[in-house]
Amino acid sequence: MPTSTSPGLPSPARGGASGTDGAGGADLVARDRRAVWHPYAAASHDGPLFAVASAAGVRLTLTDGRELIDGMSSWWAAIHGYRHPVLDEAVRTQLGSMSHVMFGGLTHEPAVRLAETLVAITPEPLRRVFLCDSGSVAVEVAIKMALQYWTGRGRPERTRLLTIRRGYHGDTSGAMSVCDPDAGMHHLFSQLLPRHLFAPAPRCAYDEPCEDADVAEFERLFARHAHEVAAVILEPVVQGTGAMSFYAPGWLARVRELCDHHGVLLIADEIAVGFGRSGELFGCDHAGISPDIMCVGKALTGGYLSMAATLCTDEVAAGVSDSPAGAFMHGPTFMANPLASAVANASVELLLSSPWRDRVAEISAGLAAGLAPAAELAGVADVRVLGAIGVIETRDPVDMAVIQPLLVELGVWVRPFGRLVYTMPPFITSPADVATLTDAMVEAVARTT
Ligand SMILES: *Cc1c(COP(=O)(O)O)cnc(C)c1O
């Protein structure tokens, strides 16, 4: 059995991962470049890479000692910031009883409590919870539920999904198949992916009314294919990674009406926007609607561990159980992991007992004021804010090799993507830190576009 003294195995001391000297960080980056793959990167990726030694509150500390204000919440997840004492304690306490136990034939208090809480805080008809490992898996689970539901209701020909362009639902096959067909990975994996139906993304912005003309194309596509559609799947009100755009709640309400009219299920992917990010607890709450199936993830555990959940109505659960299989055919190894469940309970309870609405509103006002000057820049196409999400959309894609180190130099961790320089800071971010974030974003865009 290998030990830390085995020849060829790196020892922690060699890495400088916990050191604060620049050399340790440089060594870590060099080792990373030899052995590690990063998200959406070539193996030989040589772009900017920063070694993090620790994180606390809203600050990331690099191995060279520099502190950055975190503007990303580690991709929508760390809503309470890092090393929150309540969340740390929840994990520690759970470690004392069990880290994991299989979920087939066994259950435990953290999972039951989490399911009860999710049922209580989501729209009323959602009554049953399937806990899974990540957002993408939650989307796979939602899609499988919808298809099994229709086999249980004697309509097995209902196998297609209807969605909107510019969506993002994850990186596994089923999820990829409903991501934006142009920006997504359809052309790379066309042999693997089923062909679903894509309506244009909503054109009415969040604060605009939704007219008949705005839903006309969606309505036509729906009417033509309703007989073969199992479900409509979309991100409610906030299109995240694919667009960073905010559309009219009235548009979502119309989609709900059309799903009812055609007797088709509605899947709401709340993985990015859920748990207060948009100013309401869930995206669906803006429109006062309830989906038949809902996916949550990302902020569910406050950014501590990977966990997501798919909720459904009693009707969907009954249909799935009436299907020829007689059971829902999914069951991840780490389903309902107790550590993740415990920290999810702590995170949701912490959120609900905090003045999160006021905090998100305050961040929102800070983002709107701080990003406004960007609207005057020649290289900027649009500036928009909803809840604790602030976006500068540039006219041309940003040069990551230039803008990423510049943002770090300006003291913030903001990770642009294509033509989007955006932030979704932890809810505990102070007005002064929000101002530092927005000033850095505006300056970085001004100097690089
Ligand atoms: C991030 C995201 C996913 C995928 O979640 P992972 O945990 O990365 O698998 C799915 N849907 C939306 C809307 C997301 O933002």
Describe the structure.
The protein has helices at residues 12-15, 22-35, 73-76, 85-95, 109-121, 135-152, 173-176, 212-225, 249-262, 283-287, 314-321, 338-352, 356-371, 400-409, 431-448, and strands spanning 52-56, 59-62, 67-70, 126-132, 160-164, 197-199, 229-234, 238-239, 245-246, 265-269, 293-296, 308-313, 380-386, 389-394, 412-413, 420-423. The chain is of the alpha/beta class and 449 residues long. It has 2 domains: 37-70 and 355-448, Aspartate Aminotransferase, domain 1, CATH 3.90.1150.10; 88-352, 3-Layer(aba) Sandwich (Aspartate Aminotransferase, domain 2), CATH 3.40.640.10. The strands form 4 sheets. It has a 7-stranded mixed beta sheet, with helices on both faces. β8 (238-239) and β9 form a beta hairpin. α5 (109-121) packs parallel to α12 (338-352) and α14 runs antiparallel to α15. The longest helix is centred in the first third of the chain and has 18 residues, at 135-152. Mean pLDDT is 94; it is low at 1-5 and 13-21. Bound molecules: pyridoxal-5'-phosphate. It comes from Frankia alni (strain DSM 45986 / CECT 9034 / ACN14a). Pathway: Cofactor biosynthesis; biotin biosynthesis; 7,8-diaminononanoate from 8-amino-7-oxononanoate (SAM route): step 1/1. Pyridoxal 5'-phosphate binds at residues 135-136, 269, 332-333.
